[in-house]
């Protein structure tokens, strides 16, 4: 089969379209013929050699590596102990995360059934492949963590704030992968949703249910809103703390990407800051899949690339300003 591998860390140019053996399956696994692959930030963090992490915490990488966690496809073979999936089933999932062993940038993948769900009939393989990591991140932040593993960033177990009608939720980076699902889930729960994104995404976000849009290219959120119950910041970085001032006392800040907050400042403002490490969860994806089938969730697709052009997909990701998800299509 064909798969994307890289033999040294580097830029998108290190991604090679190689011939490799079809993987063998073990207990509790199925072999999936991959139709589409979701592109996520951990894919390019891995390709870059995990430079995003402090040097003393970086894992030792053994090359060659095949990146990828998210995929949608059709089951081709099942291990003898598998009862929930059969040959011919359409499935989607985020495989073996956190970790670097998903290996979904390939025409076939060995997938643990615990990480899989049946693909919703209402969406195609491209949309299904774009969903898992982003939608599970939003779900585990906002709805149900699904485990009791402490966050590696805080050492605390995250407790989602129940979203109820009448609450106001602000989503920064609302048009991106996690952001556009956070908008939809908050709206599904009855919140008034304020989206922060470039104005060019306004139509997209309004269609997803955003009640208001703040165009960050022209307006600072802190200048126009206050008294927010919950902020989910899908951008993070050193500027994330600017959103603390829009929260009411007792409010909650959920940074999705790396961001540091002054504990004295958050204590003074009576603000809770909490984050998670998203984890694979097939049963949660099955529950989310029912929302796709009911039309209560949709997947925004920014662009698609053939698997052989994974480098181009990573170049697109580096440009930023993504609307939804970037997806690779895998022809077998």
Describe the structure concisely.
With 332 residues, the protein is α/β, with parallel strands linked by helices. It has helices at 41-47, 125-130, 132-142, 177-188, 202-208, 221-224, 263-268, 282-293, 310-319; strands spanning 2-5, 16-19, 29-39, 70-78, 90-94, 108-112, 116-118, 168-172, 192-197, 212-215, 228-233, 247-255, 272-273, 301-306, 325-329.
Topology:
Layout: E1 2-5, E2 16-19, E3 29-39, H1 41-47, E4 70-78, E5 90-94, E6 108-112, E7 116-118, H2 125-130, H3 132-142, E8 168-172, H4 177-188, E9 192-197, H5 202-208, E10 212-215, H6 221-224, E11 228-233, E12 247-255, H7 263-268, E13 272-273, H8 282-293, E14 301-306, H9 310-319, E15 325-329
Parallel strand pairs: 8-9, 8-11, 9-10, 11-12, 12-13, 14-15
Antiparallel strand pairs: 1-2, 3-4, 3-6, 3-15, 4-5, 5-7
Helix pairs in contact: 3-4
Major sheet size, sense and barrel closure: 7 strands, mixed
Helical proportion?
A: 10-25%
- Tell me the total number of β-strands: 15
Distance separating the two termini: 8 Å
What's the helix count? Answer: 9
Run of helices and strands: EEEHEEEEHHEHEHEHEEHEHEHE
GO molecular function: oxidoreductase activity; zinc ion binding
Domain Enoyl reductase (ER): 10-328
Pfam family, one: ADH_N
Protein name: NADPH:quinone reductase
């Amino acid at each position: 089969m064909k798969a994307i591998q890289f033999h040294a860390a580097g830029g998108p140019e290190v991604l090679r379209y190689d011939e490799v053996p079809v993987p063998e399956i073990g207990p509790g696994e199925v072999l999936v013929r991959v139709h589409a692959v979701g592109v996520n930030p951990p894919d390019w963090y891995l390709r870059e050699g995990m430079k995003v992490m402090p040097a003393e915490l970086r894992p030792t990488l053994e090359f060659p590596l095949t990146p990828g966690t998210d995929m949608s496809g059709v089951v081709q073979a099942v291990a003898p102990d598998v009862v929930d999936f059969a040959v011919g089933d359409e499935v989607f999932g985020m495989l073996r995360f956190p970790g670097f062993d998903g290996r979904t940038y390939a025409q076939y993948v060995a997938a643990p059934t615990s990480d899989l769900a049946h693909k919703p009939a209402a969406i195609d393989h491209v949309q299904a492949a774009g969903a898992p990591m982003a939608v599970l991140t939003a779900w585990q932040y906002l709805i149900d963590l699904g485990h009791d593993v402490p966050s590696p960033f805080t050492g605390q177990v995250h407790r989602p704030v129940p979203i109820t009608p009448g609450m106001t939720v602000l989503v920064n980076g609302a048009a991106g992968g996690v952001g556009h699902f956070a908008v939809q889930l908050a709206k599904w729960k009855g919140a008034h949703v304020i989206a922060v994104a470039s104005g060019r995404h306004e139509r997209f976000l309004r269609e997803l249910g955003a009640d208001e849009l703040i165009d960050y290219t022209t307006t600072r959120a802190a200048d126009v809103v206050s008294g927010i119950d919950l902020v989910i910041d899908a951008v993070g970085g050193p500027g994330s703390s600017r959103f603390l001032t829009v929260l009411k006392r007792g409010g909650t800040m959920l940074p999705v990407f790396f961001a540091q907050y002054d504990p004295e400042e958050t204590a003074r403002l009576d603000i809770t800051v909490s984050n998670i490490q998203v984890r694979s969860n097939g049963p949660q994806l099955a529950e989310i899949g029912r929302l796709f089938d009911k039309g209560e969730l949709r997947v925004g697709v920014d662009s698609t690339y053939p698997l052989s052009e994974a480098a181009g997909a990573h170049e697109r990701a580096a440009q930023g300003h993504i609307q939804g998800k970037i997806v690779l299509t895998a022809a077998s």
